[in-house]
């Protein structure tokens, strides 16, 4: 028997549609008691640790999920499935990927259509996630996200569509595997990663997106608020308008770590352009170029780095791997 722990956290997968078309929290989780739909060698243990729409999920909640999975590893579970709202699912998945010293499979899933909507994807995704968690190859992968018969790594997956069931994509690198009618197939090996077992998630780390004509106002506000770190979604390969530079420099001078990603949905930020505001100058100023992560994941990473006590060169190494 393969014992799989299911941690329900809420989201559309556990919601229902009202007669007026609005979608709300359901008092009873519609996924409970579906073991009959699974292969007979899988035994489910389900816990509803919260029932939150995922815009309500905080870093503290992600830490609570991580701690429950730590215990599950000690309790001898074969794997863990986390059901979660899709809005912030990628952030929780990435948080777990960087903080869990993982020895068993960990799979996140959710739904785009609530439990009683026509074509609801919740139960289907749930069953496929459990089957993936029970697969022998899944433990060797990082934290996984299963949607619509695709398996994605937590590191690069992102929600790309507001309502489509095929919303979770991995833009630059593609999925790591798929679930067919007969089995689970991985086509990529997991990238070697170092994990950081943090105990706190303190700190204010805003995320700013660059736009044409941006000036230093938002950066000055961050300085005035004494933020603990900042993530910038810069243009293209990693560039900013010249008018932001004095404020960016002031933040760096006051010791606030700044990480930079691209606002493009494909590729990675690099120091290529050597004009005013270009990546070459930003890197020389001390801005950390993060490879391939979205802004929201770079923010999770910077908070983890800060709470792991990293600073200076160690923080740069952690952020720029
Ligand atoms: N599809 C979903 O789960 C979206 C919902 N707003 C949530 O994240 O909780």
Question: Which strand order does the major sheet show?
Answer: 4-1-5-6-7-8-11-12
The mean pLDDT is 97
- What gap, in angstroms, lies between the N and C termini? 39 Å
DSSP helix count?
8
Number of strands: 16
Helix-and-strand structural type = alpha/beta
The CATH homology group name of the largest domain: L-asparaginase, N-terminal domain
- Bound heterogens, unique: asparagine
What percentage of amino acids are in beta strands? 15-25%
Give the SSE string: EEEEHEHEHEEEEEEEHEHEHEHH
Note poorly predicted spans. none
Rg, Å, rounded: 20 Å
Helix fraction, binned, reads 25-40%
Which topology of the largest domain does CATH recognise? Rossmann fold
What report would you give on this structure?
The chain is of the alpha/beta class and 321 residues long. It folds into two domains: 2-186, Rossmann fold (3-Layer(aba) Sandwich), CATH 3.40.50; 207-319, Rossmann fold (3-Layer(aba) Sandwich). The protein is built from eight helices and 16 strands. The protein has helices spanning 59-74, 89-99, 122-133, 217-224, 245-253, 279-285, 295-307, 312-319; strands at 2-8, 15-17, 23-25, 42-48, 79-83, 105-109, 144-147, 150-153, 158-159, 168-169, 177-179, 184-186, 207-209, 230-234, 258-262, 288-289. The strands form four sheets. The chain has an eight-stranded mixed beta sheet with strand order 4-1-5-6-7-8-11-12, sandwiched between helices. The protein has a four-stranded parallel beta sheet with strand order 13-14-15-16, sandwiched between helices. The longest helix has 16 residues, at 59-74. It is elongated, with a radius of gyration of 20 Å. The model has no long low-confidence stretch (mean pLDDT 97). Residues 11-12, 53-54, 85-87, 110-112 line the site of asparagine. Keywords: Hydrolase. Substrate binds at residues 54, 86-87. The active site is at residues 12, 86. Residues 3-190 form the L-asparaginase N-terminal domain.
């Amino acid at each position: 028997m393969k014992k799989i722990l299911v941690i329900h956290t809420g989201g559309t997968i556990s919601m229902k549609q009202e007669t007026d078309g609005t979608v709300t929290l359901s008092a009873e989780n519609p996924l409970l008691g579906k073991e009959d739909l699974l292969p007979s060698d899988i035994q489910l243990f389900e816990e509803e640790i919260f029932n939150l729409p995922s815009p309500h999920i905080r870093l503290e909640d992600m830490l609570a999920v991580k701690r429950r999975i730590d215990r599950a590893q000690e309790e001898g579970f074969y794997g863990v499935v986390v059901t979660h709202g899709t809005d912030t699912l990628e952030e929780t998945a990435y948080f777990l990927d960087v903080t869990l010293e993982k020895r068993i499979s960990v799979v996140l899933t959710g739904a785009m259509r609530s439990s009683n909507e026509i074509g609801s994807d919740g139960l289907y995704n749930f069953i496929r996630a459990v089957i993936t968690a029970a697969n022998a190859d899944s433990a060797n992968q990082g934290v996984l996200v299963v949607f619509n018969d695709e398996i994605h790594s937590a590191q690069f997956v992102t929600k790309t569509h507001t309502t489509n069931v095929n919303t979770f994509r991995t833009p630059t690198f593609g999925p790591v595997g798929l679930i067919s009618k007969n089995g689970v197939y991985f086509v990529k090996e997991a990238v070697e990663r170092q994990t950081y077992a943090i105990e706190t998630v303190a700190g204010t780390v805003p995320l700013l997106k660059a736009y044409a004509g941006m000036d230093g106002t938002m950066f000055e506000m961050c300085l005035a608020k004494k933020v603990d770190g900042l993530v910038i979604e810069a243009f293209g390969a990693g560039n900013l308008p010249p008018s932001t530079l004095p404020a960016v420099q002031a933040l760096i001078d006051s010791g606030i770590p700044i990480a930079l990603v691209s606002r493009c949905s494909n590729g990675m930020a690099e120091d290529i352009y050597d004009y005013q505001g270009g990546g070459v100058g930003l890197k020389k100023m001390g801005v950390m170029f993060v490879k391939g992560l979205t802004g929201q994941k770079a923010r999770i990473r910077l908070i983890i780095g800060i709470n792991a006590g990293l600073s200076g060169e160690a923080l740069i190494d952690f952020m720029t791997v």
